[in-house]
Structures are given as C-alpha cells and as structure tokens.
Amino acid sequence: MARRGKVVIDRELCKGCYLCIRSCPVKVLERDSQPNASGSYPSTPVQVERCIGCGNCFEVCPDVCIEIFDLKEAAG
User: Fold this and answer.
1) pLDDT digits (tens, 9 = 90+) for 2-29
2) At 18, is the secondary structure helix, strand, or coil?
3) Is position 42 within any domain?
4) How far apart are CA 30 and CA 6, in angstroms?
5) Distance between CA atoms of 55 and 65, rounded to whole angstroms?
6) Checking phi first, is residue 18 left (phi over 0); if not, alpha (psi -120 to 50) or beta?
7) Structural domain boundaries enclosing 61
8) Which of 3, 7, 19, 28 is surrounded by the fewest CB atoms within 10 Å?
9) CA–CA distances in Å: residue 70 to residues 2, 3, 13, 27, 39
C-alpha cells in the first residue's frame, strides 16, 4: 500500500520562493496563476493525488505556510 498525503498551503503567507516546488519528488506543486493579496504568486497543489506525504515541502518552507496531512488508505 502506497503512502498518501495531502499538502495545504496558506496562499496569503506564501511569498513565492518555490523551494517547495523544487523539493517535491513527485511534482505535486506548481506556481499559482493568481497572485495573493501581497502580489506574490504562491505555490499551489495541482496533482494532489500524487502526494506521498514525505514532508519535503514543509521542511524547506521558510515562511512556515505549509501543512502536511497523512491520509489513511481505505481498507479494500
């Protein structure tokens, strides 16, 4: 069973450094096409089903605007 995660980014705190995008091994994150209130283009999760919950994005974020949740697989 593959590990599943969910990444949540507070777009108003994100300054758009994109360290999280570079650190993601499965390419879940991309640059948002809409700016936040401060004019920065934050990172946003786009391929959420690919997230493995590794926490790399959380670890490198200098603004502490990322949360990672561990999703439990449904027993099948």
Assistant:
1) 789 999 999 999 999 999 999 999 999 9
2) coil
3) yes
4) 15
5) 13
6) left
7) 4-71
8) 3
9) 12, 8, 22, 17, 31
State which amino acid sits at residue 11: R
Residue 24 lies inside a defined structural domain of this protein: yes
How many independent structural domains does the chain possess? 1
User: Does any domain span residue 76?
Assistant: no
Distance CA 51, CA 35 (A): 24
Contact 65, 10 (CB under 8 A): yes
Which of the four pLDDT bands, split at 50, 70 and 90, describes residue 73? Answer: low
Rounded Cα gap, residues 38 and 29, in angstroms: 20
pTM score: 0.87
Count of all residues that appear for the chain in the document: 76
CA angle 17-31-15, nearest 5°?
30
